[in-house]
Design goal:
The structure is a homodimer. Chain A is built from 6 helices and 2 strands. By secondary structure, the first copy, chain A, is mainly alpha-helical. Chain A has a domain at 1-56: Multidrug-efflux Transporter Regulator, Chain: A, Domain 2, CATH 1.10.1660. In chain A, a hairpin with a 6-residue loop joins β1 and β2. In chain A, α3 packs across α4 (60-71). The radius of gyration of chain A is 23 Å and the shape is elongated. The N and C termini of chain A lie far apart (61 Å). The structure holds a DNA duplex.
Chain lengths: 130, 130
DNA sequence: CTTTACCTTCCCCTTGGGGGAAGGCTTACA
DNA sequence: TGTAAGCCTTCCCCCAAGGGGAAGGTAAAG
């Protein structure tokens, strides 16, 4: 099928699908007559796979790795689990970062009256030496 | 002072300080003899201000806005607080997103043995229709 | 005279595509 | 017959927020 239908079926944009072809992640055959990209069912499955993995915050490079494991019928599940745990770890770190950021900002916001007067503890904190 | 010392004092890299000058965020005078950027004390204060705001996850554009408020001695603190609350809101949304992502990934990871066998619930979930 | 340490501008690189131009193909409709 | 719509292609610039490094100018110090 042509790229438009493949994209529709995978729930991706044509741009994205073309991008995945360009970086060698999901490479369709080429129609010898038209020169158009020609997607098989298996390609659509891969596109869907990548689309989901991206939603799970896996980077394109990690998706490539997962796709390799997905295509290798003999790979140990250990490898996939390791990648997943690593990703969970990253998310944990980012969660902690954001939480402490939020705590600091919340502290600042609650100390500020937010009225019409020019005195603002938030700006004072940002400009103060610390 | 020259850009190197200004950067050091603000805790930023020279690249970053030069970038802020290029986008018109903190614009030093120019030394007429050498053509070098010439930073005053006030400029360093602004650089420190921006540096801190960036650490609080404010975008460069938001920093520009905060800097405008910082320089306006008559602005109401309301505006600063509104910007801060908006940022807290964004952080909250991102926290929720990451948390649900983590929950899903954790569920997948715990259902996977992670051994030498090829059967992997994680890959099954990524490739399954849903 | 040369090294070292500054500074300058300029250009390419990153992530993951989006937007749109310019051009080619086929099918449908007036 | 013309032409408009709807596909497809490649090509290039754009986003954030700078990082890396080249090429070149200048000043102080040995």
């Amino acid at each position: 099928m042509q790229i438009g239908e493949a994209a529709r079926r995978a729930g991706l944009t044509v741009k994205t699908v073309r991008y995945y072809a360009n970086i060698g992640m999901v490479t369709p055959r080429q129609n010898a007559v038209t020169g158009y990209r020609d997607y098989a069912e298996g390609d659509v499955a891969k596109l869907q796979f990548v689309g989901k993995a991206r939603k799970f915050d896996f980077s394109v490079e990690e998706c490539r790795e997962l796709l390799g494991l997905y295509e290798d019928r003999n790979r140990p599940s250990r490898e996939v689990k390791a990648l997943t745990l690593k990703k969970i770890d990253e998310i944990d770190r980012r969660l902690a970062e954001l939480q402490s950021l939020k705590d600091e900002l919340s502290g600042l916001a609650s100390s500020c009256d937010g009225d019409n007067r020019p005195d603002c503890p938030i700006l004072n904190a940002l400009s103060g030496g610390g």
